[in-house]
């Protein structure tokens, strides 16, 4: 099929005609003037074609590659081709958040298509060769076709991939050329033309809205830019190409299930990059994840050589490596850790019309599509040529991984049981999605020399029911990648990284350097240096817990606050009009242990509830998968709180608004939106930043400002928010958005960024010491309280011998430290166990930190979560430290803060954290809360709902959203 795109014909097809009406009835119809360079002379699809297969043009209404096909058009094309071709099968593998279907198309010879179940079974035996003989292995490899997976447009606004996918499908099923027929005989080609239908729908609609009569090749024109809800992301504005190891979204979960079912030899993933660029494909440069196999990198080089030759033949520019590193495993490249050869494409982004590049050449959209298509087909040809050897390397590596000589032979990950059932269920679900082998302990097991998440060597007892994931298994590389506490980076890479930071502030790191799933999920885990094989059984799901346990003459129901799902239970009950309380100090009623944060529904509070209270509680408990326990008595055991006391706080229904639009991070906005929808499922409003000046905040009692890309809020907006907060509102500001609120001139918050505190830095240290002392269970002053003589000396919470740096010195020091920001590292943070914001949180939680503001809190500001976990030194080590100081004062400080006696501060848990970054953030606040009039201000220094997977900090956010209006403010009295 010929595909010559002449500029005039192209322009009419894209934009139609322009009609200018005069006062008279005459009309003038204009077509665009010619533009040299829009012609793309090469045909995308060549050769003899089966006339019984509808052409793409007959389905789309335009030649494939002329403009971006919509998701509906793509789905229509697949269905029409399925009806007339015996060379393809369509599989719907998921539905997007918005309900759009996701498909992959299996393309091969009719004979191969009849045997797809056997093909998948055969590859599955190679993928886990526990009981596979060498002779059977040989027979399987000899009969297996090559299997390739071609994936396109996970970023919805990177248009050329999906259109290349359509062109590839049509050429493969319609071509009557011998080389294509041979390709189908020797391979199974799986094409996923559209991995993000919601994002592409947004993108194609935006293109249509911004199009004019004439093709526009200026990249500054709005046609080539994105609106705030860019098509790159999915419905909830997540970047799906970070989700493959996180498994949050239906789109990527569906792909993961399908990839794991097929175990393809090759996976290509077509993307786009800046419009002024050329074309990038593998191999990646350092840092490269150490869990990737050597054979994968070897074969990647061979594929790259053939792809480079194909581009040389077309006289197309390209490059490999350069900015592409391969450390973070959450991209579609996760498949490489399963043994698949993964190749990334990055085509210069051309949004239909074409782009004028710096050399004066216009690159058309059709050319971009063609490069994706040529790359795909040449990679498949390379695969077919080497398929048998690739299978041999694949099964050889799998045999090694399950053998005693496995690089992971002596390592087991143990995840300890928890009453946080929702969080554990999410973790187990993710492990099952990835197909990991899991076991449970059948009795307590003593382990020695294990490593905990703080990096300490410990010996302890694993309780019965501990989840066991042995690293010695067929998917050992991916197990290690997702669960190892630290992913190492070569010293040579770190040297270059530091050189870059010092030279110009740039970085080798493309994404986070920490992603350990147990830490991201906030579940307690150990790495054990042995292959645990005794007193374990295969994992089985726990028995389903009842939604409600009733008792005669009950006074109410309680739901354990340790469980993250309890927050949603409370939120949904309040939305249904049920008066709800929360417990701020643990107790036990009627034999039911109740942790901080436990939700209580009493019959007394709901005496006039218009409905069946028990039925509503049961329904809500079922929705949230929690158990509501009836209690018949309100007296706590011993000195523990009683039902009518001050520790049972009445909650107030949150009325929530989230600020979005230009200036707001769409990723953070989407993560918060998704967290509310998926954890609470309650109503909330999205406020457009462009319309904020006419927004009536009085409709809400909780206002969330996600992270901003720059300081978007002006004085008028700040003034409106301040007035609203003072009148009883709960303001929650996150990461980049905290700056205007903590600016001294705004007189909004007493929190400051560290660079603004050096004039009175000592007051921050004193506040820190008070926090520490307030949590101790014993004081030497207690025994002195009864003495009659005036005290001649007291213990001050600072070291009077410590020399304090001047403001100038502190600023100079901070300027240096600030250059070495955390590189997406997981760090330990300690929590105030008496604060309502930490309900459901243990004493130490993992926090993901990067280039976030460093927040400082002093008197008048509560800091429920601070960076760093105190750990007490052994007596011998402390004594040695004191003795080594001799007659000198023992000066133990970290930056501005003083360390308490016998305490060390553990910070880094996983990822790259330079010493300078560690020193700068130590003891600073991750989460602050303070009064402002009748309301409150809550600040997060980082993004608590990051990628929908940082569950420990997400719980803090949910507490703030659901409980804030009831626990932290003095709401106006409501009229009856």
TrEMBL record:
Its cofactor is Zn(2+). GO terms for biological process: proteolysis. It holds the Pfam family Peptidase_M14. Residues 1-26 form the signal peptide. GO terms for cellular component: extracellular space. CDD domains: A4_beta-galactosidase_middle_domain. This is Peptidase M14 domain-containing protein. It comes from Pseudoalteromonas rubra.
């Amino acid at each position: 099929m010929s595909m010559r795109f002449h500029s005039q014909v192209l322009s009419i097809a894209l934009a139609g005609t322009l009609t200018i009406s005069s006062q008279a009835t005459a009309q003038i119809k204009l077509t665009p003037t010619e533009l040299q360079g829009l012609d793309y002379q090469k045909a995308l699809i060549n050769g003899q074609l089966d006339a019984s297969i509808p052409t793409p043009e007959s389905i789309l209404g335009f030649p494939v590659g002329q403009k971006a096909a919509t998701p509906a058009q793509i789905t229509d094309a697949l269905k029409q081709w399925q009806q007339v071709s015996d060379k393809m099968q369509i599989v719907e593998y998921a539905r997007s958040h918005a309900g759009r279907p996701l498909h992959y198309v299996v393309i091969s010879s009719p004979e191969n298509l009849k045997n797809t179940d056997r093909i998948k079974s055969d590859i599955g035996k190679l993928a886990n060769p526990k009981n596979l003989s060498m002779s059977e292995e040989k027979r399987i490899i000899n009969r297996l076709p090559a299997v390739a997976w071609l994936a396109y447009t996970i970023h919805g606004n990177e248009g050329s991939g999906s259109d290349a996918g359509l062109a590839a499908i049509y050429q493969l099923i319609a071509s009557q050329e011998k080389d294509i027929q041979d390709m189908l005989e020797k391979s199974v080609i799986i094409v996923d033309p559209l991995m993000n239908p919601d994002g592409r729908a947004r993108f194609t609609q935006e293109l249509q809205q911004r199009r004019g009569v004439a093709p526009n090749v200026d990249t500054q024109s709005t046609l080539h830019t994105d609106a705030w809800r860019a098509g790159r992301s999915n419905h909830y504005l997540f970047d799906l190409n970070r989700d493959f190891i996180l498994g949050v979204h239906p789109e990527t979960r569906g792909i993961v299930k399908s990839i794991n079912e097929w175990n393809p030899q090759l996976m290509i993933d077509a993307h786009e990059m800046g419009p002024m660029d050329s074309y990038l494909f593998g191999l990646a440069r350092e840092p490269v994840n150490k869990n990737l196999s050597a054979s994968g990198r070897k074969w990647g080089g061979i594929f790259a050589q053939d792809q480079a030759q194909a581009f040389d033949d077309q006289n197309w520019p390209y490059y490999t490596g350069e900015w592409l590193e391969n450390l973070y495993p959450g991209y579609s490249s996760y498949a490489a850790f399963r043994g698949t050869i993964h190749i990334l494409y990055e085509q210069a982004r051309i949004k239909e019309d074409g782009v004028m590049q710096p050399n004066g050449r216009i690159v058309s959209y059709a050319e971009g599509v063609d490069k994706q298509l040529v790359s795909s087909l040449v990679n498949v040809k390379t695969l077919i040529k080497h398929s048998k050897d690739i299978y041999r390397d694949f099964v050889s590596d799998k045999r090694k991984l399950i053998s005693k000589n496995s690089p992971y032979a002596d390592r087991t990950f143990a995840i300890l049981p928890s009453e946080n059932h929702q969080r554990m269920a999410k973790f187990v679900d993710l492990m099952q999605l990835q197909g990991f082998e899991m076991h449970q302990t059948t009795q307590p097991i003593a382990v020695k020399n294990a490593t905990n998440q703080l990096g300490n060597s410990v010996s302890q007892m694993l309780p019965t029911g501990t989840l066991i994931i042995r690293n010695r298994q067929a998917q050992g590389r991916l197990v290690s990648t997702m669960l190892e506490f630290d992913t190492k980076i070569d010293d040579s890479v770190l040297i270059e990284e530091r050189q870059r930071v010092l030279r110009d502030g740039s970085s080798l790191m493309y994404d986070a350097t920490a992603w350990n799933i147990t830490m991201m999920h906030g579940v307690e885990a150990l790495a054990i240096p042995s292959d645990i094989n005794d007193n374990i059984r295969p994992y089985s799901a726990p028995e389903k817990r009842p939604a409600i346990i009733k008792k005669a003459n009950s006074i109410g129901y309680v739901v354990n606050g340790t469980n993250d799902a309890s927050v949603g239970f409370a939120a949904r009950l309040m939305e249904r009009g049920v008066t709800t309380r929360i417990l701020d100090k643990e107790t036990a009623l009627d034999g039911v242990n109740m942790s901080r944060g436990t939700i209580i529904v009493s019959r007394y509070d709901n005496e006039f509830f218009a409905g069946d209270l028990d039925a509503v509680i049961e329904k809500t408990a079922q929705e949230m998968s929690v158990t509501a326990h009836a209690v018949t008595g309100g007296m706590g055991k011993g000195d523990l709180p009683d039902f009518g006391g001050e520790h049972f706080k009445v909650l107030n229904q949150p009325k929530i608004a989230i600020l979005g639009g230009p200036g707001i991070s769409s990723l953070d906005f989407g993560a918060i939106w998704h967290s509310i929808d998926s954890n609470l499922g309650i109503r909330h409003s999205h406020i457009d930043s462009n319309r904020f000046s006419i927004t009536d905040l009085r409709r809400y009692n909780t206002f969330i400002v996600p992270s901003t890309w720059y300081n978007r809020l002006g004085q008028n907006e700040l003034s409106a928010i301040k007035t609203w907060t003072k009148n009883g509102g709960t303001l929650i500001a996150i990461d980049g958005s905290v700056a205007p609120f903590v600016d001294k001139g705004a007189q909004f918050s007493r929190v400051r960024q560290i660079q603004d505190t050096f004039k009175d830095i000592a007051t921050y240290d004193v506040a820190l010491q008070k926090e520490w002392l307030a949590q101790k269970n014993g004081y030497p002053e207690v025994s002195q309280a009864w003495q009659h003589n005036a005290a001649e000396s007291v213990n001050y919470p600072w070291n009077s011998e410590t020399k304090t740096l001047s403001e100038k010195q502190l600023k100079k020091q901070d300027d240096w430290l600030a250059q070495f920001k955390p590189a997406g590292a997981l760090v330990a943070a300690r929590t105030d166990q008496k604060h309502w914001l930490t309900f459901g949180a243990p004493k130490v939680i993992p926090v993901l930190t990067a280039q976030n503001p460093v927040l400082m809190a002093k008197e008048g500001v509560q800091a429920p979560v601070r960076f760093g976990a105190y750990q007490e030194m052994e007596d011998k080590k402390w004594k040695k430290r004191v003795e080594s100081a001799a007659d000198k004062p023992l000066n133990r400080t970290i930056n501005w803060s003083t360390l308490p006696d016998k305490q060390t501060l553990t910070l880094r848990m996983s990822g790259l954290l330079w010493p300078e970054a560690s020193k700068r953030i130590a003891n600073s606040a991750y989460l602050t809360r303070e009064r402002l009039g009748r309301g409150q201000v809550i600040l997060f220094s980082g993004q608590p709902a990051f990628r929908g997977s940082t569950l420990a900090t997400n719980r803090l956010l949910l507490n703030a959203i659901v409980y804030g209006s009831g626990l932290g403010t003095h709401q106006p009295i409501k009229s009856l």
